Each structure stands twice: as C-alpha cells, then as structure tokens.
Backbone:
C-alpha cells in the first residue's frame, strides 16, 4: 500500500464548478500536510499547508482529519487556470516530503 | 537569481552511459533534497543533505546512484551504467532546516535510449 493515496482522476469539470479531492495517508506519525500543484512538465509548487482546524485561501479550502488520516482539498468556482495535477503531501519528522501520485484536474470552458 | 537551478534541463543518453546532474540551491538554504518523478507518479524521495552531510538515502538509490554536496552548496547526482528504467524527471529542492518552505528546481528530464 502506498503511504499517500489519491484518486489519479482525471477530474473533468466545467468552469465555475466546485470540485473536491481526497487523500489518505497510512502513517499516523505524519506531522505536516500540504497540497502542491504541478503543471505539466513543471516542478511542484506549494498550494497550501493543511491544518487540523481547516484553512482557506481564496477559492481553496483544505481540511485534515487526523483520526481518519484523511486530507481534502476543495476548489470553488473553478477557473481554466486551475487545470493541473494536485499532489497530496505529508511530512514526517524526518523532514522529507512523501507525495501521493497526484490528481489531475481539467477545467473546460 | 534566487531560485533553485538545475542543469541540464534535458539529457538523452544511451543505456550503459554515466550521467551527472547538478543542482544549485538557494544560497542560504542548508538542506538539499533529490527526488525522482516518473510519468503518472508523484515525486519519490531519493536523498537529502544538511550542509555537506548526506543524512538519509532511500532504498530507491541503488549502488549505481551517488549524490554529493562537497562544500555544502551545490550538489551533483550521478547515475552510472544507466538503464531505461532510470528515465524520469530528477527534481532538486532546498530549504532551511526547521522551515517548511521547500523550493523546487525545474528538474532535469533524463531519457535513456
């Protein structure tokens, strides 16, 4: 079993739609959680950190459920520019990032 | 330039040849990481350095792979006797210890033919 699991998608949604991605992680010792965005053939870039209390950044909302070892990302009012792969990432106290396989999002007009 | 720089951007090599990639991290960052990403997968951790010390190596890093960071600044990743399965994007990232702000380079895309 992979340490971080995500539905690879693709998720094809129209502009303006709300879309949610989920992720589960296997190691209960995980300490930090992130969503990264990766455009085709580019490097991953931090989208947002994920906190137990949940956090929001504009149209993006991230949630963490430590008891269920589950992380989510909600994107509201999708834009064409949101088309990318979204990587769920956890970090243990060894300070290395463990990435999921990524979920591909395609927003169409 | 304040970002992480990787060279070359692309490398095509014949099976069995040796290749070396270079990463120049953000100058004040003392930690440097190497990841490998294959098509349809997320990046996989290979190894990391704090200053010049290599602190952890993944089991993915076979004896054909070696990484160095001799002066605690730039790092090199060498692959000896390349195999087709080594074809991937090799990503470098840097950060300050204790800080969650990783910065990734643009990667080196290796194709072994």
Residues:
């Amino acid at each position: 079993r992979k340490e971080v699991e995500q539905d690879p998608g693709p998720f094809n949604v129209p502009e303006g739609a709300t879309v949610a991605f989920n992720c589960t992680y296997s190691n209960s010792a995980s300490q930090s959680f992130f969503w990264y965005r990766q455009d085709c053939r580019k490097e991953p870039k931090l989208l947002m950190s994920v906190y137990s209390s949940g956090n929001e950044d504009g149209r993006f909302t991230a949630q963490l459920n430590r008891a269920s070892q589950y992380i989510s990302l909600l994107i509201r009012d999708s834009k064409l520019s949101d088309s990318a792969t979204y990587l769920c990432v956890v970090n243990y106290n060894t300070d290395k990032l463990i990435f999921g396989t990524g979920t591909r999002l395609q927003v169409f007009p | 330039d304040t970002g992480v720089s990787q060279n070359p951007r692309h490398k095509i090599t014949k099976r069995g040849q040796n290749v070396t990639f270079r990463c120049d991290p953000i100058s004040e960052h003392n930690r440097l990481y190497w990841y490998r990403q294959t098509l349809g997968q997320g990046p996989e951790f290979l190894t990391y350095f704090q200053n010049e010390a290599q602190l952890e190596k993944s089991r993915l890093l076979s004896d054909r792979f070696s990484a160095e960071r001799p002066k605690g600044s730039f790092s090199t990743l060498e692959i000896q006797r390349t195999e087709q399965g080594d074809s991937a994007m090799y990503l470098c990232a840097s950060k300050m210890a204790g800080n969650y702000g990783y910065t990734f380079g643009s990667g080196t895309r290796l194709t072994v033919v």
